[in-house]
Every structure is written in structure tokens, then in C-alpha cells.
């Protein structure tokens, strides 16, 4: 009997989307406001989903306090109030798009959570734009 448990979190971060191989006008055309040279911020909402068997002893799939602490310690502390381009190694050579941030978060969580649980990350960059990644 598999059930999915979900935890919502939030962080604020700045970024700039840019491809150094392109000139300024192409970058501006492709990335629009997210190409602003002096960076800009987003209020990111993060939903982490874990799917696994319900433990008959506890009735839990996963201890939500532990999930909360893992997300806080390994993800939120890493990204919150940071300039993703300058402050976070994950994006030294990778454009900090919502897609790439979601993949980074998934990889971090995958290294912390037992492999018997499947993990899905949903990252909202705005209220209306969000991405999903589940390791495939
Ligand atoms: Ni942006």
C-alpha cells in the first residue's frame, strides 16, 4: 500500500539567466526580464513528495518532522536569501532556471533519503509557473 506524503516549503533567491556563448541581444530575447544584468528575485515555493509503503507500526510513510528537517537543513539553508549564480556552487556553470534548481534539489534530497522512497520535486518560480522533476 503506497502513499505519497508532501511537504511545502519556501525560499527567496536572486538569479540571472544568461548563456555566455550568446550576445546581449540574444540573451535578452530568450530570457527577457530574467536576463537583467543586476539580477532579480523570485519567491520560490517548493513541494517535496515522497512515495512509499505505509509502515504498519507507525502508520507513517515517512516521519514528516524528519522530512521537514532534511529540507530545511540541506535545501533551504543552501538557497534561501542567496544569489544563485554567485553564492551557490550548483549554478557556477549551470543556468539557474526553475528546471535546473528542481534537479539540484532532487539530487540533494536523493542523497539524504532512503532509496525505498521515490521523490518528486515541484518548484514554483511564480504563482503560475512551476516545474516538476522525479529523477527520470
Ligand atoms: Ni527570473
CATH architectural category: 2-Layer Sandwich
Helical content class: 25-40%
Q: Helix-strand pattern, N to C?
A: EHEHEHHEE
Separation, N- and C-terminal Cα atoms: 23 Å
Number of helices: 4
Radius of gyration: 17 Å
Poorly predicted sequence stretches spanning 5 or more consecutive residues: none
Adjacency order of strands in the biggest sheet: 3-1-2-4-5
Description:
With 136 residues, the protein is α+β, with helices and mostly antiparallel strands. It has one domain (2-133): Tetrahydropterin Synthase, Chain A (2-Layer Sandwich), CATH 3.30.479. The chain is 32% helix and 30% strand. It has helices at 24-31, 64-79, 84-87, 98-112, and strands at residues 2-15, 40-53, 82-83, 118-124, 130-133. Strands 3-1-2-4-5 form a five-stranded mixed beta sheet. A hairpin with a 5-residue loop joins β4 (118-124) and β5. α2 (64-79) crosses α4 (98-112). The radius of gyration is 17 Å and the shape is elongated. The mean pLDDT is 97. Nickel (II) ion is lined by residues 15, 34, 40, 42.
Key words describing this protein structure:
single chain; about 140 residues; alpha+beta; Tetrahydropterin Synthase, Chain A; 5-stranded mixed beta sheet; 5 strands; about 30% strand; binds nickel (II) ion
SSE topology sketch:
Elements lengths: L1 E14 L8 H8 L8 E14 L10 H16 L2 E2 H4 L10 H15 L5 E7 L5 E4 L3
Parallel strand pairs: 1-3
Antiparallel strand pairs: 1-2, 2-4, 4-5
Helix pairs in contact: 2-4
Amino acid at each position: 500500500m503506497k502513499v505519497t506524503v508532501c511537504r511545502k516549503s519556501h525560499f527567496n533567491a536572486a538569479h540571472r539567466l544568461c548563456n555566455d556563448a550568446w550576445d546581449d541581444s540574444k540573451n535578452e530575447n530568450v530570457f527577457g526580464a530574467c536576463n537583467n544584468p543586476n539580477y532579480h528575485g523570485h519567491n520560490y515555493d517548493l513541494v517535496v513528495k515522497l512515495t512509499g509503503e505505509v509502515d504498519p507500526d507507525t502508520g507513517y510513510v515517512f516521519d514528516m518532522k524528519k522530512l521537514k528537517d532534511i529540507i530545511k537543513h540541506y535545501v533551504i539553508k543552501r538557497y534561501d536569501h542567496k544569489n544563485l549564480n554567485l553564492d551557490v556552487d550548483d549554478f557556477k556553470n549551470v543556468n539557474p532556471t526553475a528546471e535546473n534548481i528542481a534537479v539540484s534539489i532532487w539530487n540533494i534530497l536523493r542523497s539524504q533519503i532512503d532509496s525505498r522512497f521515490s521523490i518528486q520535486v515541484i518548484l514554483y518560480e511564480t504563482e503560475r509557473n512551476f516545474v516538476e522533476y522525479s529523477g527520470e
